[in-house]
Specification:
Blueprint (H helix, E strand, L loop, with lengths): L11 H32 L1 H12 E6 L6 E2 L5 E13 L7 H12 L3 H8 L6 E7 L1 H10 L4 E10 L7 H4 L11 H5 L1 H4 L4 E6 L12 E4 L6 E4 L3 H17 L4 E7 L6 E7 L18 H4 L8 H11 L8 E4 L3 E3 L2 E3 L8 E4 H6 L3 H11 L1 H10 L28 H4 L10 H12 L3 E2 L5 E5 L5 E4 L6 E2 L3 H16 L14 E10 L6 E14 L6 E8 L7 H4 L1 H14 L6
């Protein structure tokens, strides 16, 4: 029998290939998993850890107690009080629309904005920051699930508007926004703490999860040079005079001419620090530091000082003055017309003669005049520890017109801040030294240790002691016999100078008729000055003379300050 041929079995090689293929796929898949695990657990571990933490960890900043601001006598001018902040855990709010309708009338907030906060996809949302106790209690009484309360510090100013432009204010986040609250914010605000808690997706604490409290560090206390009582008196008298003359506004500064300490600084109109958000931006500005004006006849004391320092004149030198004087294309006369007359050098300042001071200025010359204006600090900032100080303006010598040298001696064509003017005038009260004005006495920490003090600075010498003392005598005569009689104080020697200046047109090109700034600057006691006071009244109605409008304010504030500092009469 012949043998039967059998069919060949499937190739063993084909099955091995199939097995190898699936094995390769498995290996590649495993490698992909390993690579991905390596990427997630090693390469991108920090990023994913951060994402996980953001989902699980809730961080709440714990605001520190802001430091207290004191006056020089230790009276509290600004401090923080506990206030309630209302927040929501949106996951727990069952009926956001109903809750929003209940909270809206109590918190005086828009219902739609409340609904938006209550429906956020998160575990925490602020509803209202730092509300008063009455509102917080009304919300707490509703017993709404998902509504919670936090204690935060709220800034409080016990004297409302007292020193408002100097002290400034803070924002909702506890950071300074204006004034000394802003300038010394680094010292006052402290260092915030933090509460870290681990929560589940519904915002509930995870038992045994992360819980960490980092305590806050309270801010330092700041002690100012401001004297609360003098500040109050200065504000009150300024306000009354602005009202009396229906003026646009005014400024007043009281300063120690030797140390540069400012006892009072005020502007009118003022505002309530506890309601600053309701005040227009323009009214929040400390115009004694940020705004310039033309000083008028106060400038005559600076020009006269330069002439004495240059030994051009002696106090009893006599000058024959015509009724008017022509400088380039401009004819300059007196505030009150008079015939040609003899004046001593002293009388020119004491009686505030425009013709006389222009005569002195022409002889002094442009170069020397500019040099002394700069030396008295009128071309640069004072450097006061306060934000927003602006420059004054004196035209560069190369830009002077033919009549400029005739305008500047009586305070036209030059501008300065009230602060610059009181610094310059203090040179005469301080034996010729120019000191830097300042508002800080010292900063102290919670232990009572001094963290910072304002450095003592004698200042730079501008004129000789002899010239300064001669000018004090001239300015004393200006009060006793000249234009400043309304500043006289019984029992005390007072020195000072009046100023009456036309206001430049707002659109430029000359001066506007009927718009004046009335001012007076002086110091007492004249023989040993303890303070310098500048009063500026903007656009008084009825009269524009500094001796009538501003000098009486000086007198009342100076009388009060003399008693306050217990300076005995002569």
């Amino acid at each position: 029998m012949s043998a039967r041929r059998r069919s060949a079995p499937p190739s063993a090689g084909r099955g091995e290939l199939r097995l190898l293929f699936f094995l390769s796929l498995l290996i590649i898949g495993l490698l992909c998993v390993v690579v991905r695990l390596f990427s997630v657990q090693v390469v991108e571990a920090k990023r994913y850890q951060a994402l996980a933490n953001d989902q699980r960890l809730r961080r709440v900043e714990i605001a520190p107690h802001r430091g207290i601001i004191y006056d020089r006598q230790g009276k509290e001018l600004a401090f923080s009080v506990d206030a309630e902040t209302i927040y929501a855990t949106p996951y727990f709010i069952k009926n956001p629309a109903l809750v929003a309708s209940k909270l809206s009338p109590i918190l005086e907030l828009d219902e739609a904005s409340l609904f938006e906060k209550l429906t956020k996809d998160c575990g925490f949302a602020y509803i209202a920051r730092k509300v008063d106790e009455e509102k917080a209690e009304a919300v707490r009484a509703l017993g709404i699930e998902g509504i919670g309360f936090l204690k935060e510090g709220k800034r409080y100013y016990p004297y409302d508007s007292l020193g408002s432009h100097v002290i400034g204010f803070v924002g909702m986040d506890g950071r300074g926004l204006a004034g000394l609250e802003l300038y010394y914010d680094e010292f006052l605000r402290g260092k915030p703490g933090q509460l870290v808690a681990e929560n589940d997706p519904l915002g509930r604490p995870i038992p045994g999860g992360v819980s960490k409290l980092i305590s806050s560090t309270d801010g330092n206390d700041v002690i100012l040079t401001i004297d609360r009582d003098i500040q109050y008196k200065a504000e009150e008298e300024l306000r009354l005079q602005v009202e009396r003359f229906q003026a646009k506004g005014g400024n007043i500064i009281v300063m120690n001419p030797r140390a540069g300490e400012i006892y009072a600084m005020a502007n009118e109109p003022t505002f309530d620090l506890n309601g600053f958000s309701e005040t227009s931006a323009g009214s929040l500005r400390n115009r004694a530091v940020t705004d310039v004006y033309e000083p008028g006849s106060i400038m005559k004391a600076i020009i006269a000082s330069a002439a004495l320092e240059e030994r051009m004149y002696q106090l009893d030198d006599v000058l024959h003055l015509p009724s008017t004087i022509k400088v380039s294309d401009k004819v300059i006369g007196e505030a009150h017309p008079r015939p040609p007359e003899d004046f001593t050098f002293t009388e020119i300042v004491a009686r505030s003669s425009n013709v006389g001071i222009v005569t002195i200025g022409l002889e002094l010359g442009k170069e020397r005049m500019c040099r002394y204006i700069e030396a008295f600090g009128l071309t640069k900032r004072t450097g006061i520890d306060f934000p927003g100080e602006t420059y004054g303006f004196t035209p560069p010598p190369d830009d002077w017109s033919g009549s400029t040298i005739g305008n500047i001696p009586f305070g036209q064509g030059i501008s300065a801040t009230p602060l610059q003017m009181i610094q310059a005038f203090s040179v005469l009260a301080n034996d010729g030294f120019l000191v830097r004005p300042h508002l800080l006495c010292k900063v102290i920490n919670a232990k009572g240790e001094t963290v910072k003090t304002y450095p003592e600075d004698r200042g730079c010498k501008v004129i000789s002691t002899q010239t300064a003392r001669e000018m004090r005598g001239i300015l004393e005569q200006a009060v006793n016999e000249g234009t400043g009689k309304a500043a006289r104080i019984d029992g005390y020697r007072v020195a000072g100078k009046t100023g009456t200046a036309q206001k430049p047109g707002e659109k430029g090109g000359g001066y506007e008729p009927g718009r004046y700034i009335a001012s007076f600057i002086g110091f007492a006691p004249a023989q040993d000055p303890q303070f310098v006071i500048l009063v500026v009244i903007d656009e008084p109605v009825g009269t524009m003379y500094g001796g009538v409008v501003a000098a009486p304010v000086f007198k009342k504030v100076a009388e009060f300050s003399l008693r306050h500092f217990r300076i005995p009469p002569e």
